[in-house]
Write a structure and sequence with these properties.
Layout (H helix, E strand, L loop, with lengths): L10 E6 L3 E6 L8 E6 L8 E13 L2 E11 L2 H14 L1
Antiparallel strand pairs: 1-2, 2-5, 3-4, 4-5
């Protein structure tokens, strides 16, 4: 969800790290947009929620793709859940 006026782009993550993720969206995002995100990962009981910033955005192979930087997780458990997911994929 884009904070402030705008669209509510749903997306699919392309890759994820502890600091952020790359996401493919139906609606384009713009560098500098601030987002309220809900991220559902396999094996997690509920979505992780965070505030995030769009660091870059472009069209690749006809798809809107953006790099998102996590700024604040709304719950300490969300940070831990993402950390556990990434470690389990290594």
């Amino acid at each position: 969800e884009v904070v402030g006026p705008g669209l509510r782009p749903d997306g699919q993550s392309v890759n994820i790290s502890l600091s952020g993720l790359s996401i493919s969206t139906v609606s384009p995002l713009n560098k500098g947009d601030f987002l309220k995100m809900e991220l559902s990962l396999p094996g997690m009981g509920r979505p992780s929620r965070s505030l995030a910033e769009v660091m870059w955005a472009r069209v690749e192979n006809g798809q809107n793709v953006a790099g998102i930087r996590f700024m604040i997780f709304l719950n300490d458990a969300d940070d831990s859940s993402i950390r556990r997911f990434i470690e389990s994929q290594a």
